[in-house]
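Let us practice reading a record.
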Amino acid sequence: MNLSLPEEPNPLLNHLIFHARPLKTLTGYPSILGGRVKTLHPKVFGGILSRRDNEKDKEQIEEYEIPEIDLVIVDLYPFEATVAAGADEPTTIEKIDIGGISLIRAAAKNYSDVVIVASQDQYEPLLEIITANGAETSLEERRWFAKEAFAVSSHYDSAIFNYFDGQDQSAFRYSENDAKILRYGENPHQKGVYFGKFEDLFEQLQGREISYNNLLDIDASINLMNDFEDITFAILKHNNACGIASRPVLVDAWKAALAGDPVSAFGGVLITNAVIDKATAEEMNKIFFEVVIAPDYDLEAIEILSQKKNRIILILKEAKSKGKQFRSLLNGVLMQDKDTHTETADDLKVVTEKAPTSQEIEDLLFANKIVKHTKSNAIVFAKNKQMYASGVGQTSRVDALKQAIDKAVAFNFDLNGAVMASDAFFPFPDCVQIASEAGITAVIQPGGSINDKLSIESCNETGVSMVTTGYRHFKH
């Protein structure tokens, strides 16, 4: 026990610390199995869990000569610190506290009669109570200690879960040294701070200080590109792809991505999963953009792209991000698993009389990857692994569809033979009717609406093929 003493030690506290006796004098057993079993014994847990006002409990306590325990102080094994130190798995596993957690939960459960101090953060409140009242504590005080104890237990279990789930818990816990003060937040009148280890993911070759909005777009870019294996180039603005294409040659992927919306590409964030060569860099350098991300660059490409000194050039070290995501709201935090499911041909269920062609299936899967990372309500058009247009962040799916059609027309894309992806099901047949009139020949959507039949019938009437995936991809 590492209980620090006040300047003038309290007699009761001195008694707790200096008159402790080995546990085996109570249980009759020494610490066994290499220290794995020490406190797990009826004479320990009986003394903690016995209800002082329960006659049957009293009888058993007397029968088995179990002393009542009124105060439990626990310092759990340092599991998180062990993980953060990079210990190997056998060492880490031995730092999973069993008896300590059990003591905490037992004492907290019986807060009516027992005080539980579950971490060093509660030492000071305990000392204040002891100093003021001696050995007396109120029910309200014991309940507060119990609440704090369950918080410690919950956090400890979460750290262990994240370890087994492939999460390094230290990735979600940052010290003041990990805080980076940003120029400002989303807007100049807002302060912004980034807590994280950006340098673990990226090497910044040059460029100005990365902003709050840059970080948002960089995160969206990484999440999008993680779903593509073919040589792919994407351009993002405000967390949405405004252009993306896959091609055997990188410069062709860039040109096709830029053609998707050359207006929105201005000032965007660029990302590719291939090494940027000289030919691609020359084409990229013709427009203004803020950030470029790639796994690497040819030396000649670096010379070209670094001509604009404020341009942020990043080498992505680690493509895969953590599996959890967080959002602050209502004075709290939401946490969920990231949407890491990517549909394959095996997920597709043909629900129309006409089946999509092999080329349409490739384009449907391509479009579906994009719509997954597009703000809802979302619609994406694609053909030959090139995004033709998208409708993003609309309150109506019909509005998202009309927005996508208008953009496709504005940039001279012929939608005849193109495919359409929707991030959620169609509640009515209006979307597939409008899409068919625009030239769309194949549709991918999650399915699951009570009106699926109406949309399917509409597709059958116009010769459009439709597949469902069973996976919705809302992105709020």
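A brief commentary: Residues 139-164 form the longest helix (26 residues).
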